[in-house]
From TrEMBL:
The lineage of its organism: Bacteria, Pseudomonadati, Pseudomonadota, Gammaproteobacteria, Pseudomonadales. GO terms for biological process: isopentenyl diphosphate biosynthetic process, mevalonate pathway. It comes from Marinobacter psychrophilus. PANTHER family: DIPHOSPHOMEVALONATE DECARBOXYLASE. Its EC number is 4.1.1.33. InterPro entries: GHMP_kinase_C_sf (IPR036554), Mev_decarb (IPR005935), Mev_diP_decarb (IPR029765), MVD-like_N (IPR053859), Mvd1_C (IPR041431), Ribosomal_Su5_D2-typ_SF (IPR020568), Ribsml_uS5_D2-typ_fold_subgr (IPR014721). GO terms for molecular function: ATP binding; diphosphomevalonate decarboxylase activity. Residues 183-311 form the Mvd1 C-terminal domain. This is diphosphomevalonate decarboxylase. Residues 14-170 form the Diphosphomevalonate decarboxylase-like N-terminal domain. GO terms for cellular component: cytosol. Keywords: ATP-binding, Lipid biosynthesis, Lipid metabolism, Lyase, Nucleotide-binding. Belongs to the diphosphomevalonate decarboxylase family. It comes from the Bacteria.
Length: 335
């Protein structure tokens, strides 16, 4: 363990996660309070590393993503740093350097690993020493899915009831080692989605005639998934996860104008996965706000699943992952 601590600078790593019971829709945009709870798994192969360096000479925070000054997402980063400074009573601005090892804004949850890594590094750099639950609350303000990436394995995000958002936080449901599933991701477009998740869910909540049905059904799906995870019931988890993913996309398509996150390759991958399961392979699909397909499977099925998806026209890359851990901060001695 690293016992050295350099005040004013720190690093963190956080892993992306994929929701099995999906989050889509907010009840408060400022604090980013969700209208629904969600359940996810962390992915060990998709991560963000972030470094935060305090500098009393800075007049503004700066944010560099993958080696480039990032103007597009810097508002959220700065707002979060400001909030963390006010907790610690500091006025010192920071330089933030971040790296995603997978495509940003493409439906692979870069906002989740990104904001979880940011709050975890900033917590250490500003010497706040907040609890994981408080970090989850802060990460949520950056991005709803980021609240879940504070924790590893199987994670539940609570909708919460309080207007201040202090109960809209995630908590671990089961450890990765309790049920070590594998994830095979079929990537068909590495570019940024044309409508980001924040805007997409806002449009859906405002215009879909089915939005209240989605919100009202969510407790049922959460209960089904919780039980499936507690009892390691793969078929039950497969059914509720596919239902939640398809309901999310049906809902998004019912917004006006409708949101189309699938491409033709997405649809073909879903058919292949259903066919594999029909042949007895332990696999199911989920899809987020982007065209990439995530196949969740038993570890012994991962080679078969990867081979089947690699074959689908339009699949440009296969990513493979196991279940990941929670966000971790490190001292930033030399880098
Ligand atoms: P995704 O499917 O990748 O989560 P979103 O539309 O939800 O797509 O979010 C993408 C946004 O998340 C980016 O435009 C940026 O603002 C933010 N983001 C991505 N990576 C990071 C990072 N490493 N640090 C901070 N913010 C990030
Ligand atoms: C489809 O967490 O990216 O991936 O809170 O506006 O930043 P913001 O949205 P984000 O939305 C994720 C939506 C999803 C489903 C999920 O991860 O639960
Ligand atoms: Co996101």
């Amino acid at each position: 363990m690293n016992t050295e601590y350099s005040p004013g600078r720190a690093r963190a790593i956080a892993y992306a996660n994929v929701a099995l019971v999906k989050y889509w829709g907010k009840r408060d945009a400022d604090l980013n309070l969700p209208d629904v709870g969600s359940i996810s798994i962390a992915l060990d192969a998709l991560w963000t590393r972030t470094r935060v360096e305090l500098d009393p000479a800075l007049e503004q925070d700066s944010f560099e993503l993958n080696g480039q000054i990032e103007a597009y997402g810097s508002g959220r980063v700065t707002a979060l740093l400001k909030r963390m400074r006010s907790i610690g009573g500091s006025e010192t601005r920071s330089r933030v350097f971040s790296q995603n090892n997978f495509p940003t804004g493409a439906g692979l949850a870069s906002s989740a690993s990104g904001f979880a890594a940011l709050v975890t590094a900033a917590d250490r750099a500003y010497g706040l020493d907040l609890s994981p639950s408080r970090l989850s609350e802060l990460a949520r303000i950056g991005s709803g899915s980021a609240a879940r990436s504070i924790f590893g394995g199987y994670v539940e995000m609570h909708r919460g009831e309080l207007p201040d958002g202090s109960d809209s936080v995630a908590e671990p449901l089961a450890a990765a080692a309790d049920w070590p599933l594998a994830i095979v991701i079929a990537v068909s477009e590495r570019g940024r989605k044309s409508v980001g998740s924040t805007e997409g869910m806002q449009r859906t909540a405002q215009t879909s005639p089915f939005y209240s049905a989605w919100v009202n059904n969510q407790p049922n799906d959460l209960a089904l998934a919780r039980t499936a995870i507690a009892t390691r019931d793969f078929d039950a988890l497969a059914h509720v996860s596919e239902a939640s993913a398809l309901a999310l996309h049906g809902l998004a398509m019912s917004a006006r104008p409708g949101l189309l996150y699938f491409n033709a390759t997405t649809m073909e991958c879903l058919h292949r996965i259903r066919r594999l399961r029909g042949r007895g392979v332990a696999v199911f699909f989920t899809v987020d706000a982007g065209p990439q397909v995530k196949a969740i499977c038993a570890p012994e099925a991962a080679d078969t699943v990867a081979a089947a998806l690699e074959d689908v026209p339009g699949v440009t890359e296969i990513l493979r992952a196991g279940l990941g851990s929670g966000a971790v901060s490190m001292d930033d001695g030399q880098t």
